[in-house]
Specification:
- The chain has about 375 residues and is an alpha/beta fold.
- It folds into three domains: about 70 residues, no CATH class; about 190 residues, D-Maltodextrin-Binding Protein, domain 2; about 100 residues, D-Maltodextrin-Binding Protein, domain 2 (3-Layer(aba) Sandwich).
- Strands 4-3-5-12-6 form a five-stranded mixed sheet, sandwiched between helices.
- The chain starts with a strand and ends in a 20-residue tail after the last helix.
Amino acid sequence: MIANGRFDLSHVLRKGLVILAGAKRRAGIHQSLPSDGSRDALRAPGMTARVVAGVAASLFAMSSAQAQPLDKVTVAGWSQPISEITNLLAEPDKGFFKAKGIDLGYVPGSGGGSAIQNMLTGQADIAFTDPAALYLALDKGEKLVAIYNIYPQNVFNVVAPKAKGIRTAADLKGKRIGVYSLSSGTRQNLQVLLHQVGLTEKDVTVEVTGLLNFAPLIQGQVDATAATDTGLLVAKMKGLPEVDVIEVKDHLNLPSDIFVVTQATYEAKKPLLKRFLAAYRDSAAWMIAKPEEAAKIAVTRAINGRDEALNLEIIKLRNISTVSPTTTAKGLGHFDPELMQKGADTFHKLGLIGKPLDMGAVVKSDLIP
């Protein structure tokens, strides 16, 4: 039906006539159709040219849809393909993006900053990043737009053994606190948490403990450690003793992750970005509605997904972080602009960025389904 990229209408007509002949036989009409598919066939008793035209039009539409190439959209992630992003990894199984005419690609990263950098260097179209990385890039003069609020709930925390008596952010004064790295979200969110209670890093001792930073906590090398909800979950399942948890969201509920594009991409590809966000919204809604199915798919799609039961618990946590009062009122993906501005103002006060940012010019909701 498609030959060298061209639609073969004569083939469609011949196929339509064959279908029409079958319909006539079932109806008891025995006049044969010419083998060459000539116009005489359109004069068969009880059939009209409009019927054949309708069949041909339907086949044409089907063939045109099959011939349409998918638009490639690549996401630069902050992580490797891990279980908490199963809604993206499930594309070969579920086809949410293909249904919107998109061929989805994924470039792994090592943090929100690397996601933005991979996008800026042309390796991806969209960055799966965080507000902190966005603020830092904007401060450097990059022209970026935040288009979708992936996880409106802040998933960062500070964890301390019960025996330490660290139950509030103010109790962290004078304590040794572990972070993944000095450029990680754990450190940045620790700074935000301290700021909310009038403290700075000068009031604590920050220790770099690496990604598996619960071992130093258990061994007493630090008094508390900055982590995430999923990191804490895994540690508890591996036998972490009873702890107190200080949630950063109770002080500043800044989104954990957002989709960001360049200003140029935002202006030039709005229809494509709308389709992408609609597909992502559908995938997120699926994972919320069917976490058990997602957990099974993660076994084969996620690099850390061998344990289906653990996948399920991680996915449930990520589903919780996907919704908020704002998304309940407006739909998945919507921002709370005041929080995004408050976050930028906090980063400026902390000296993490050198100039004030107007997030009203950066955060856009017009592409959200």
